[in-house]
């Protein structure tokens, strides 16, 4: 268990006011409110990685958030899996920011989408000469002083959710487990690989769906805090009550983008602090 501080503040206001430098001491992970979807900005030192970017209509919000953090360049843009609520805005992100490398999941040929958002992403990457690299379990790289380990996919998924790239990002004693839309099958493959242990922050898989965050998986990762990225009144009824109940066996610190807006977690490697765009009591 890592000591944590939970603060609610007007996030955007603070950032504009303080003119935070681009050089982030420790690590900052921002779960950007993109409604029903995922968009996660990871910063450490002068390095940054964007994991997913929401639907195409969220592009302006994501671009605005990145610019508010003085980002002009992204070391990595990682698409967990090619669904539009994760990669819909990617072509516009690649247009707006100089990007070194795109990381994607290995997707079986029969599952590769032909949707416009995906083809636009490929075309923008080609035009700008950005390499696209498939990543899977066992690979690792650094973002500033933080280590990024790819925990999944371990095996080919039989649907796109279970092809999600799952990352464990660690700085000192503090860790973030981000599992895209991984469901029970992919969670089981991570359990089988024996690589899971306690984490500080868990981004609940698939927006808090009942088919993710299984009991055995949560028992292995024992999160100190959880983040759920989902839209207000979404048609999937995410997050599901049973998922919240399962999470609450481990932590009462559950932050939801539909209630809190953008959620920002900063750490020096020994403790972490959570800031939210708005208080749940504002809703
Ligand atoms: Zn999704």
Summarize the topology.
Elements (H helix, E strand, L loop, with lengths): L3 E5 L2 H8 L5 E8 L8 E6 L1 E5 L7 H10 L4 E7 L4 H4 L2 H7 L1 E7 L11 H13 L3 E3 L5 E4 L2 E7 L13 E6 L2 E5 L5 H10 L7 E3 L11 H7 L3 E4 L12 H8 L5 E3 H4 L2 E5 L4 E5 L7
Parallel strand pairs: 1-16, 4-5, 5-6, 6-7, 11-12, 12-13, 13-14
Antiparallel strand pairs: 2-3, 2-15, 3-4, 8-9, 9-10, 10-11, 15-16
The structure holds zinc ion.
Zinc ion binds next to helix 3.
N-to-C SSE series?
Answer: EHEEEHEHHEHEEEEEHEHEHEHEE
- Identify the overall geometry: globular
Strand content: 25-35%
Compounds present? Answer: zinc ion
Mind telling me the CATH class?
Answer: Alpha Beta
CATH architecture term = 4-Layer Sandwich
Number of strands: 16
The overall number of domains is 1
Note the total helix count.
9
What does the largest sheet look like?
9 strands, mixed
Kindly identify the CATH topology. Answer: Metallo-beta-lactamase, Chain A
Q: Find the CATH superfamily.
A: Ribonuclease Z/Hydroxyacylglutathione hydrolase-like
Description:
With 283 residues, this protein is α/β, with parallel strands linked by helices. The protein has one domain (25-269): Metallo-beta-lactamase, Chain A, CATH 3.60.15. 25% of the residues lie in helices and 29% in strands. The protein has helices spanning 11-18, 59-68, 84-87, 90-96, 116-128, 184-193, 215-221, 241-248, 257-260, and strands spanning 4-8, 24-31, 40-45, 47-51, 73-79, 98-104, 132-134, 140-143, 146-152, 166-171, 174-178, 201-203, 225-228, 254-256, 263-267, 272-276. The protein has a nine-stranded mixed beta sheet with strand order 1-16-15-2-3-4-5-6-7, with helices on one face. Strand 4 (47-51), helix 2 and strand 5 form a beta-alpha-beta unit. The radius of gyration is 17 Å and the shape is globular. Mean pLDDT is 92; it is low at 7-21. It binds zinc ion.
């Amino acid at each position: 268990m890592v000591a944590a501080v939970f603060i609610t503040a007007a996030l955007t206001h603070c950032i504009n006011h303080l003119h935070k430098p681009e050089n982030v001491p420790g690590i900052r992970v921002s779960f950007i409110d993109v409604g029903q979807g995922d968009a996660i900005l990871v910063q450490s030192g002068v390095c940054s990685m964007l994991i997913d970017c929401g639907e195409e209509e969220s592009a302006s919000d994501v671009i605005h958030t990145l610019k508010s953090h003085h980002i002009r360049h992204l070391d990595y843009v990682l698409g967990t899996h090619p669904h539009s609520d994760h990669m819909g805005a990617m072509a516009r992100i690649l247009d707006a920011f100089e990007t070194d490398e795109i990381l994607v999941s290995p997707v079986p040929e029969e599952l590769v989408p032909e949707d416009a958002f995906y083809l636009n992403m490929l075309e923008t990457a080609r035009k700008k000469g950005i390499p696209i690299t498939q990543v899977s379990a066992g690979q690792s790289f650094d973002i500033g002083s933080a280590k990024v380990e790819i925990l999944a996919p371990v095996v080919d998924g039989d649907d796109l959710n279970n092809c999600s790239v799952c990352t464990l990002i660690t700085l000192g004693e503090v860790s973030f487990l981000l599992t895209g839309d991984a469901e029970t099958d992919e969670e089981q493959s991570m359990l089988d690989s024996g690589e899971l242990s306690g984490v500080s922050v868990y981004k609940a898989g698939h927006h808090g769906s009942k088919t993710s965050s299984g009991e055995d998986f949560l028992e292995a990762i024992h999160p100190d805090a959880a983040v759920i990225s989902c839209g207000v009144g979404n048609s999937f009824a995410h997050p599901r009550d049973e998922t919240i109940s399962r999470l609450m066996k481990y932590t009462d610190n559950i932050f939801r983008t539909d209630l809190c807006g953008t959620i920002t977690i900063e750490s020096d490697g020994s403790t972490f602090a959570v800031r939210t765009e708005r208080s749940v009591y504002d809703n």
